[in-house]
Here is the input.
Amino acid sequence: MRIEGMDYNTQREKLALPEYGREIQRMIDYAITLPTKEERQKCAETIVLTMERMVPSVKQSPDYKHKLWDHLALMSEFKLDIDWPYDTSEARKISTKPQSIAYPTNQIPARHYGNMMFEVFEKLKSMPEGPQRDELARITANQMKRCLVQWSHGSTDNEKVASDLAQLTDGVIQLNLSKFKFEKITLRDFPERKRKKK
Here is the structure.
């Protein structure tokens, strides 16, 4: 809906760096139109000071002055003819989006244990017998039980953990439940998950 005389942000041109707002953009557009280099230079310095005051968190970075001048160059689309105090040739990198990271698509048979646990299962299969493998098996079994408790995935009894561990390590790790002691795990050990209201 368009109402005569009303100026909506959705109808205005897109801002290069919206965190500085439309007024800073207007100042920069005005600075570009100034006739002499001295006037443009003075105006640009004032704009950078204003930007610094508007976004005080920028001062946390060690080279914040350089960053502000890079932002000015970007917002002016490099049209501002002044003596730049810093090299702004790298400023275009700020506005380029990073490449998206590929999402892992490997399928795991028991997703409630998580992808990292399957890496541990593979390690257990290839480890030689000894105290190191026994310790890793102990830590793994306790973590598996935590996963079952946390995700409320059916039975959380010790037999389920021992059975899953034997199956997922191709029978290499066999827990002797008469000797093996699990750590005490309670629901209070986990942050409470918020349930969605219907």
